Structure prediction request, 435 residues.
Amino acid sequence: MSRQIAVIGTGYVGLVSGVGLADFGNHVTCCDILEEKIKLLNNGKIPIYEPGIQEYFDKNVKAGRLLFTSDIDQAMRDNEVIFIGVGTPPKDNGEADLSQVQAVVQAIGRNLNGYKVIVTKSTVPIGTNRWIKEQIAKQSGKDCFDVVSNPEFLREGKAIQDFFHPDRVVVGYESEKAKETMSDIYRSLFLIETPFIFCSLETAELIKYASNAFLATKIMFINQIANLCEAVGADVNQVAKAMGKDGRIGSKFLHPGPGYGGSCFPKDTKALVEIGNQYHVEMSLVKAVISSNEAQKERMVQKLEKALGGNLENKTVAILGLAFKAETDDMRDSPAIVIINCLLKKKALIKVHDPQAMENARKLFGSTIEYAANEYEAVKQADALVLLTEWNEYRSLDLDLVKQGMKGKHILDTRNLFEPSKVRALGFVYEGVGR
Prediction:
């Protein structure tokens, strides 16, 4: 049977989840305190860039299964299931900031008017769902509710695919009634035999952090191997390909680059270290991953500086790619931010282009850098070209046209998009990562 669901938060996690849950046949009301965002959604416009979401959005709005409101209190009273999908950004010490979650919990306590299932989609530290349960009971004076931990595993740029075809669905629960409710909500996935992991609240919370920390570790492992490849004259692409053929290792996330970024890996690895500190468990490996990731970004600047003779002052550097990965406009903790700031400190002149992230870049850098209308405008009169994001349009660059536009001939390909021998044959001084 379909369920009546309120999703609190219309950011990346909340909106994708709301659209997906509605497409499963549930009646979903997405809520946000930002009136302008709700107005935008009610006008049929998506405030995030995510390929494929518009089709599902339009379909479910038209069917009457997907609504939007800023009246969060009313939505909580009217719906039997409440999904918490607000942000949990990092504090300065790496600990997750739960202020938005706290505000939602207080609102639930005020509006608890019957049995509810409170589902935490947001990534939260271990023990948070237990705390949510205690706070709602304390504020409402009632026990007619259950709390469920249902972490998301959405890749930006692939979120729609991930929601409808997940590797697994994790449900941390305590009562059979809550388990039955979640089974109803996700019945469409049961029908296609998606693996479900039913477990305790704490186990579900830790699964999310452990998964992201492990993936971040794979990225930094292959980056360190890439750096060693440069020193010994090996090819990291062939090393990674051979490693990936081992079923115990797998080929995913063995792609060298300028370091990881985005809304999950940086904050979740730091939060996991902080959780370890709170419980007096040493997370030395995750700490090493975090420091290695920061060093990798700086290494890209050092590689460029060396290629240009040790001095970047007044050198024009064209940067293609600002988002932390392709198929998103998200610049949160993008390697591009650190790299651009380092280049500016060294008094380089920066020209940038990205298919989706230009507006976000303007908010971050203002007039300190130049924004090009397209990739070929970006490289005009540039001393060097740096590729930071693996957009498909950059993979198919017309390098003859690039060569005509550039003043210099240096290319730093941090994503290994090009075949070195072919680029060098055109007269470029080419450098990748680990090749």
Observations:
- The chain has a mean pLDDT of 96.
- The two ends are 55 Å apart (CA to CA).
